[in-house]
Every structure is written in structure tokens, then in C-alpha cells.
Amino acid sequence: MQPDTVTVIAGRPAHEPGAPLNAPITLASSFHAGGAFEYGRHANPAYESFESVVGELEGGRALAFASGIATAAATLGLLEPGAVVVLPRHGYNGTTSLVQSGPYEVRLIDPSDTAGSIDAFTGADLVWLESPTNPAMEVGDLPALVAAAKEAGALVAVDNTFRTPLRDRPLSYGADIVTHSASKLLGGHSDLVLGVLATGDDTLYERLHDHRSLHGAIPGALECFLAVRGVRTLAVRLDRAEASAAVLADRLKAHPAVAEVRYPGFGSMVCFVVDDADHAQRATESSRVITHATSLGGVESTWERRRRFPAEPETIPAGLIRLSVGIEAVEDLWADIEAALG
């Protein structure tokens, strides 16, 4: 069955007379003893609906968490102190900050440099990959990197937030864990904070489930309901945003105020660089259609100057603008960009 169809039909109640079409929001902390559910910190029917959709899309078993960063924390919870962790030099700064604050030996790589990255895998316990990276948009050969990391004996996790399972399924070529900030493209409406991961390994699944239960990083029933509703339209949202992103990237390349455009040819994210931080800041604050805000993947377009965050590496250009393209009319987006840059 095609993934576009899975987004619509998976995770629904049984097809029985009188059954609801959608999985209901189950607002309960406790359940009658002796059944499939006991206590809300361990499981909830609303969690399982969302997990069923993502698990089927990714080709594994999924677990929902309170946030995307909670999925990274659970993955790191599989490691011992002193473990060697390899991650992108320009990856999401929340993940990088989390790893660097822990008791780990950290190695930073450029995923677009396949040979250099593979050299760093020797002796690694965990290889964490993003492609494209956030916000540098460095694109790596994920199948080759995953295969090399597995050959080196490392656990491999891939952040699939930007690509989504409609564009890539890392479990299918050997990754151990796939993670998402479901606040982004999966949810798609900027109305929830949620994370989800998937794995094809039953032992890893049980360990990650135990981590969620013991550390309390559980999602809310309402957030899971909203995320399922968001996933139902993922295919059409992503197709629309991706088509617009390609148009905007081409036009930005010809704009005299733009020094560099970073677009990998797929997805809804476009990063571009203007001459200095002040110009980038003024542009992002003066738009009327595009919202000046952090986060990404919603139906509304958003942008921001990434170096406004102190945790962003200094190797990210001060004038880099990260644009998340939504589903508005592309000509309105372009007119807004032109006016803001001017």
C-alpha cells in the first residue's frame, strides 16, 4: 500500500457498525484493572492510534513522547557514561546541546563528507544522523553512512523530521531508531509539542518504552489526537510545500541581496544567506505573509535568522535565514520575500 494511503487509513478504530471513524481522545489517568491498559503513564488508546500510524509509515514499532527532544533523551538513555557519540556539526542545536551536556565523548561530522564521517565512526557507540542538517542543509548519503556505522558496531539513530517517512524510511536500510519532532511536519499545524520514534528491534522498543515510563516523558492524549489528524493530510501538505519551496529557491538564487541558497531539491525547508545579520533580522521581522517565528513544518510559512540563538554554532553564517515553506500561494510568498528583503 502506498504511504500516502497509509497516512489516511492507519490507526483508525475497527470497521464495525457504530464504531467511530476516528480514534477518540481518551482522557483517563487510570483504567479498570485486568485489561490492556492500567495506568496512563504506560499507555493510552490515543497514544496507540498515533503510534500505529507512524509505525506503519516507518516500517517498525513507534513510541510517542512529550517532545522531539525527549526522543533524543530516550535514545541517549541506552548508553553508558563515557560512550562515544557521533553527530552532525550543524545538526539541530537542541540535540547537540543535550549530547554535549552529558557524560559522553562527542565527535562532530559533516554528513556531506562521506569518507570523513565514516572515519569518525570507529569505536562509536551511537551515530546520530540528520540529512539535511538543521539549519545548514548539509545532505549526506544516508544509506552509505548507516551501513558504515552499523559495520563499525554503532547504534544508529536518524532524525527524519525534515524528510518524513514519505520521502525516506531509514529503518528500511538498517537504522536502529528513527526520530521525529512531531510538532513539525507530522502534526503540521503548529498547535502541539510532541515527539515520536520508531524502531524495528523489539528489545530496543522495550528499553525505550521503559525509559518513557520511568522518566515520565509521556505525550498528552489531546496532542496525539491532533497529531493523527495532522498526519492525515501530510501527503498533500508536503507536496504543496515542496513544490513552492523549489520555486522560491530558484528565485532566491537570482535575487541580488542573496549570497547563497541551500535547498537539497526536496522537502519544505529553504535556507539562504544575506549579507549580514542586521539585514537578515530586519527582513524576517518585516514580512506580512510569512510569520517571524521559530519551529517549522506548519501550514503557515515561517522564517527566522538562526544565529539569533546563542546555541547555534558560529560556523552558521550570521545572515542565514531558515525558511519553512507552508501551503500559501507561492506568488504571495514571493512577493512577501521580495518586499522584506528590500
Question: What can you tell me about this protein's structure?
Answer:
The protein is an alpha/beta fold. The protein folds into two domains: 3-232, Aspartate Aminotransferase, domain 2 (3-Layer(aba) Sandwich), CATH 3.40.640.10; 234-341, Alpha-Beta Complex (Aspartate Aminotransferase, domain 1). Helix content is 36%, strand content 17%. It contains eleven helices and twelve strands. It has helices spanning 3-9, 45-58, 68-76, 93-100, 114-120, 142-151, 202-215, 221-232, 234-253, 277-285, 330-341, and strands at residues 61-65, 84-88, 105-109, 126-130, 155-159, 177-181, 195-199, 258-262, 269-274, 291-292, 302-305, 320-324. Strands 1-7-6-5-4-2-3 form a seven-stranded mixed beta sheet, sandwiched between helices. The longest helix has 20 residues, at 234-253. It is globular and about 65 Å long. The chain starts with a helix and ends with a helix.
